[in-house]
Write a structure and sequence with these properties.
With about 425 residues, this protein is of the alpha+beta class. Helices cover about 40% and strands about 20% of the residues. The N terminus is likely disordered.
């Protein structure tokens, strides 16, 4: 009887092993690696998910590996496509040589991530250091029950984010030590279904082939933050450096249609600038504004310009109405000009600040300065160019050079025209 029970127990073990092998064979490795020597980025994330029948949820077994030169920097991976509500796994060198610290945190909006009692429980299974490469294996319990910016084992295009700073001094065992703004970040997608094990013994993943390659991962199909910030910058640079100066040159040109040219170009440039500013607000919604930082200064200037963009066209319209009624410039005209000049100057400064924040090369700044110099020359020379053209054509110059209101005389009643002449 005892021999029979022993035989049945061995058969049960064999059956369990076969079941585990079948379950393992049904899943494949899942790994994302970001390696960019120029940005000094070298970090990988490996994931295997297992059904936990006790909690009726899925546990995430993870490997995080990152290169920290001179034990500096941090590396992070997070669920979802934004920082807001992301479940973040942040790794950095520990206090002593050979130590590795792994901290699980979350964030509201774009504020620095902090540990929270609301995040799922986790256990660090193993940490080790191999040269400059720091590694950690962990299990996140019931990880798919995190709902704020969730990761689902059934998703074939699950969004994830990564970030790092290659030179920030961490070297701490403190799980809540503050981190700095990242030097590299982006989004990517994982096919979570290929590494899901409905059954079988949970095992933390290893680096695929002991190499830093991506398997079952791809770049995010949605617009990346860098691309959206580039669109934000292009819209505002084109509006402030090209369009608005052309609108000013139009009203100064003394052309018969100068007023129409002016308001049409300026309304187009204002619309373009508003789109760029709104996009910038969307991308940085919830970010703290610290006026002492370059980012904070950029945002402060942007908000001031946004307010002026609403007032300047309004003053321009009121100037036009009063000019048709009185036939002369008023205080509204002066404020329209002052606000317009302030927007142009502030916009140019903010374009340069934006290039600095984006870390662009010196050639971008040279290009911006050249474009600004050309725009300044166009504004200054617009009335003189019209005068030269009219003189060559044998026309009498009708407009007082530099008097912007003269271009609106054609809109006045005949008796008012005669008064002005």
């Amino acid at each position: 009887m005892w021999a029979l029970n022993t035989l049945n127990f061995k058969n049960l073990l064999k059956l369990s092993s076969i079941t585990a092998l079948v379950a393992s064979a049904s899943a494949s490795p899942l790994q994302y690696c970001r390696v960019n020597e120029a940005l000094r980025t070298d970090q990988c994330l490996g994931i295997s998910t297992f059904k936990n029948w006790t909690s009726n949820a899925n546990d995430f077994y993870m490997l995080i590996s990152a290169k920290f030169e001179n034990r500096k920097g941090f590396a992070a991976f997070g669920t979802g496509t934004t920082m807001d509500g992301s479940l973040m796994f942040i790794m950095y060198p520990g206090e002593r040589e050979g130590d590795v610290t792994l901290s699980v945190r979350s964030s509201n909006y774009h504020y620095p991530p902090q540990p929270s009692d609301l995040t799922p429980g986790y256990t660090v299974l193993k940490t080790w250091v191999d040269g400059s490469y720091h590694n950690a294996q962990l299990v996140c319990y019931s990880c798919d029950e995190w709902t704020r910016n969730a990761a689902k084992v059934t998703s074939k295009n699950q969004g994830w984010i990564f970030s790092n700073h290659y030179d920030y001094m961490m070297q701490s065992n403190d799980l809540a030590k503050p981190i700095s703004q990242h030097t590299d970040y982006d989004r990517f997608e994982l096919d979570m279904t290929i590494s899901h094990y409905p059954k079988g013994t949970p095992i933390a993943p290893e680096l695929v082939g002991n190499s830093r390659v991506s398997v079952g991962a791809q770049k995010s199909s949605s617009w990346s933050p860098q691309q959206l910030f580039a669109i934000h910058g292009l819209l505002l640079a084109f509006a402030f450096v090209i369009m608005m100066p052309l609108g000013v040159a139009g009203i100064r040109s003394g052309h018969e249609k100068a007023f129409k040219i002016h308001w049409m170009i300026q309304m187009s440039s204002v619309s373009m600038a508003l789109m760029g500013i709104v996009l910038g607000i969307y991308l940085t919604w919830g970010h703290p504004i610290k006026i002492t930082t370059l980012n904070g200064t950029h945002k402060f200037f942007g908000i001031c310009i946004l307010l002026c963009l609403g007032l300047t066209p309004t003053f321009g319209y009121l100037h036009h109405v009063r000019y048709l009624k009185l036939g002369r410039a008023t205080g509204i005209t002066i404020w329209h000009r002052r606000l317009g000049a302030s927007i142009l100057a502030g916009g140019w400064v903010n374009v340069l600040v934006g290039l600095k924040i984006a870390g662009q090369s010196i050639w971008y700044f040279i290009g911006a300065f050249v474009a600004m110099a050309i725009s300044s020359a166009v504004i200054y020379s617009a009335p003189k160019v019209k005068e030269v053209i009219d003189t060559k054509r044998g026309k009498t110059v009708r407009f007082v050079i530099g008097d912007d209101e003269e271009s609106e005389q054609e809109l006045l009643p005949e008796d008012r025209k005669n008064e002005q002449r």
